[in-house]
Automatic annotation (TrEMBL):
Pfam families assigned: FUR
CC terms in the record's Gene Ontology section: cytosol
Protein name: Transcriptional repressor
Sorted UniProt keywords: DNA-binding, Metal-binding, Repressor, Transcription, Transcription regulation, Zinc
BP GO annotations: negative regulation of DNA-templated transcription; regulation of secondary metabolite biosynthetic process
Cofactor note: Binds 1 zinc ion per subunit.
Keyword Transmembrane: no
Gene Ontology terms for molecular function: DNA-binding transcription factor activity; transcription cis-regulatory region binding; zinc ion binding
Family, per entry: Belongs to the Fur family.
SUPFAM superfamilies linked: Winged helix' DNA-binding domain (SSF46785)
Sequence positions that bind Zn(2+): C91, C94, C131, C134
Cofactor(s) this protein requires: Zn(2+)
Length: 144
């Protein structure tokens, strides 16, 4: 079935369902492959990557790649959110992505431009750390 230049296959539909169910956190291609195979779809890693590439090109998903050469992770794009305009925070514990779309970012951008002559490009920029829940869990384990 063709919709606006794209083919809607069972694999693509199930990938989108999985991404929708995983909203608010990132997933890897291998997470998606495991899920698809777990529900009985006989798909190859190539099929998963090809679908993810197309969904990314269509701006339906976000793709994050760490500079350390780690594998990419993906997240469903939320309409109305302009990810090129803000930084992202990724929790090393649970994989949650937090979009820093607060007024503070405007102050940071302005400071970088005025104080350092540097124009910040936020698209694809990820800072790593721990979300509040994982930090509390980690601190609780360390104090035990």
């Amino acid at each position: 079935m063709k919709r606006s230049g794209t083919y809607s296959t069972k694999s693509r539909q199930e990938i989108m369902k999985y991404l929708e169910a995983s909203a608010g956190r990132t997933v890897s291609a291998s997470d998606i492959l495991d899920h698809l195979q777990g529900i009985g779809l006989n798909v190859s890693p190539t099929t998963v990557y090809r679908n993810l590439d197309r969904l990314y090109e269509e701006k339906k998903i976000l793709k994050y790649v760490a500079e350390k050469g780690e594998k990419a992770v993906y997240q469903l794009e939320v309409e109305g959110r302009h990810c090129a305009d803000h930084l992202h925070l990724k929790c090393l514990g649970c994989g949650k992505i937090i979009h820093m779309d607060c007024d503070f970012m405007d102050e940071v951008r302005e400071h970088l431009m005025r104080g350092h002559g540097f124009s910040l490009q936020c698209e694809g920029t990820v800072l790593y750390g721990y979300c509040e829940a994982c930090r509390k869990k980690k601190e609780g384990l360390q104090s035990s």
